[in-house]
Specification:
Chains A, B: This is MerR family transcriptional regulator. Chains A, B: It comes from Nonomuraea antimicrobica. Chains A, B: InterPro entries: DNA-bd_dom_put_sf (IPR009061), MerR-type_HTH_dom (IPR000551), MerR_fam (IPR047057). The structure is a homodimer. Chain A contains ten helices and two strands, in the order ααββαααααααα. Chain A is mainly alpha-helical. Chain A has two domains: 3-73, Multidrug-efflux Transporter Regulator, Chain: A, Domain 2 (Orthogonal Bundle); 99-207, no CATH class. Chain A has a two-stranded antiparallel sheet. The longest helix of chain A is centred in the last third of the chain and has 35 residues, at 173-207. Chain A is elongated, with a radius of gyration of 23 Å.
Chain lengths: 226, 226
Amino acid sequence: MRMAELSQTTGIPVPTIKYYMREGLLAPGRPTGRNQADYGEEHVRRLRLVRALVEYGDLSIAVIRDLTARIDNPDLEEFDLLGAAQKTVTQRKEARPGPYKDEAEQRLYDLLSARGWRIRTGDPAYRTAVGVLATLDEVGRHDMLEALDAYADGAERIAEADVRLLGGDVSDRERAVEIVVIGTSVGDTLIACLRRLAQSTVAERIYARGPSAGEREPGLPGARRP
Amino acid sequence: MRMAELSQTTGIPVPTIKYYMREGLLAPGRPTGRNQADYGEEHVRRLRLVRALVEYGDLSIAVIRDLTARIDNPDLEEFDLLGAAQKTVTQRKEARPGPYKDEAEQRLYDLLSARGWRIRTGDPAYRTAVGVLATLDEVGRHDMLEALDAYADGAERIAEADVRLLGGDVSDRERAVEIVVIGTSVGDTLIACLRRLAQSTVAERIYARGPSAGEREPGLPGARRP
């Protein structure tokens, strides 16, 4: 297909497509004449992936270039490709050095060991988790530290769904990266929402009291577990 | 205690304390002379709460003023106070109108009904969840929609831990608001980290392959489930 059709199919403006090409995110088309080239389905897929990474991964062009280069590198194994994809959507926030941090390092290590989880202390998610635990300790929210194991339980259930969703076959590397990046970034928001929605239900069970009149939705029945 | 001691006890600079007082987040002290006042434990607690809300809730002064006013309003029931606290840490992102949104509304309603969760369609978490589901549909990630129930399972486990943590006794309203706001905002980050850490463990089980040499931590044994 021509550039105009590529733009129409993907809904991405021609100047943006050209920009992605200059930045190395998209391979050039097959030249068919002076100033003309032919594009195939692989260009459509790559463009959709790039847009998904820009929109949902909130990733910089440099990071996307690195990721697409990994997709195109046949020597890179799938597992490492997915690990790289996951790291791009993981914020890394280091704890301030000190006793709270040391304690938090030990606490997280013990938690993951007891659960048989893979331990890579340099992983951004691991570093950030240490920072969160140190913070909770510092502000005196020790009660939340006691809920850690239950949180890990919930997280493991969600992760199992994530991995099942990805499926055993990750030979379609473009799809796999898309699932990891969209699934992780958009999924975090979804999980945060579900957590809040579940909280009010669980809290209502405990406090055994209905919503106040102002909050009640007129058109919708308040569904309850029988 | 005097202002200087209040500042020392909380670690909050005097000008910041005075600012909070002018903004109505903190009650004035008991006057003990010209330009002097006496502060009590309730001032220490309130200051710690305000700092927690500023640092972890990322909340504006106006929102914090609203929250502290609710804490101080004895006519407001605990359940409503906690609902208000939770809303302040919930992002609201509305879906674009259209068929994806309509479909997403129905999907979320069905999911929550089937689970017996409380349904309040105007809740910010509900609105945002509709937006996320519409987005996933629009970008063609229908597979993630199928994982919804598993996500809700995980979220419910986490929410149960949240509510147990809060405890049945919420008569200490300051503590309850602090737990809800810190627990929700910091907790989201913690859960996102645990999800990623669990993902690599679960993925490793499936792909049945150890970490590559470059990722292995030298000093720490790779703990595995036996």
